[in-house]
Design brief:
Helix 1 runs antiparallel to helix 2 (25-36) and helix 3 crosses helix 4 (54-66). By secondary structure, the chain is mainly α. 71% of the residues lie in helices and 6% in strands.
C-alpha cells in the first residue's frame, strides 16, 4: 500500500506526538494511517504501508482496540479483519478524553480520596489535606464537565468551542 506525501508527513508527525499523547510512536503512526485512509485496512496493509513487522502491527491493533479508537470490520468474502477509525473527529476526541480519564484522572482521584480519608496528625498534614481537597474538587468539576461534553452531539460541541473564542475576546 502506497501513501501520499501529505499522509506520510502526518503519519510521521503522529508518531512523534504519540508518546506525548500516551501512546508509543508505532501506535501513533498506525492510528494516523487508519484515520487518514478512507477504506478499512487489514494488518498486512498497515504493516506494508508503515514498513513495520506484522507482530508489531498485531500488538498495536490490540492496543488501539483497548483504547476504543478503532472499529473491527469484516468484508464479505474476505477472512481478514479490517480496521477503521470513526468518521467523526469529535467522536475520536470524545473517546480519547474518556480513555485518558480512565488511565490518568480516575487513579489520581482514588489516591486523593484515600488521602482525604486519613486523619491528619499535625498542621502540615492538615494543610496538605486542604490542598488535596482543592485538587480533588477541581478534578471532580473537570470530570463532571467532561461527562456533560461526552453526551453532546458533535454540532453542540463545536458551537461551545466557538463560544469560547468569543468569550476570550470579551475578557481581553
Amino acid at each position: 500500500m502506497k501513501t501520499t506525501q501529505i499522509t506520510q508527513s502526518l503519519i510521521l508527525h503522529f508518531g512523534e506526538m504519540g508518546s506525548r499523547w500516551g501512546l508509543n510512536r508505532t501506535l501513533g503512526q498506525m492510528y494516523a494511517l487508519i484515520v487518514l485512509t478512507e477504506s478499512p485496512l487489514n494488518a498486512d496493509q498497515i504493516s506494508d504501508a508503515l514498513q513495520i513487522s506484522r507482530s508489531n502491527v498485531s500488538m498495536g491493533l490490540k492496543e488501539l482496540k483497548a483504547w476504543n479508537l478503532i472499529k473491527l470490520q469484516h468484508i464479505q468474502g474476505d477472512r481478514k479483519e479490517y480496521f477503521s477509525a470513526p468518521n467523526d473527529v469529535w467522536e475520536i476526541a470524545r473517546t480519547l478524553v474518556v480513555e485518558r480519564r480512565k488511565r490518568e484522572l480516575d487513579p489520581t482521584l482514588t489516591t486523593l480520596r484515600d488521602a482525604l480519608m486519613s486523619e491528619p496528625s499535625n498542621d502540615a498534614d492538615q494543610y496538605a489535606q486542604q490542598r488535596i481537597q482543592e485538587m480533588h474538587d477541581l478534578m471532580e468539576m473537570v470530570i463532571l464537565w467532561s461527562n456533560e461534553l461526552q453526551n453532546m452531539s458533535s454540532e453542540k460541541l463545536s458551537a461551545i468551542l466557538k463560544l469560547g473564542e468569543g468569550i476570550s475576546k470579551i475578557l481581553d
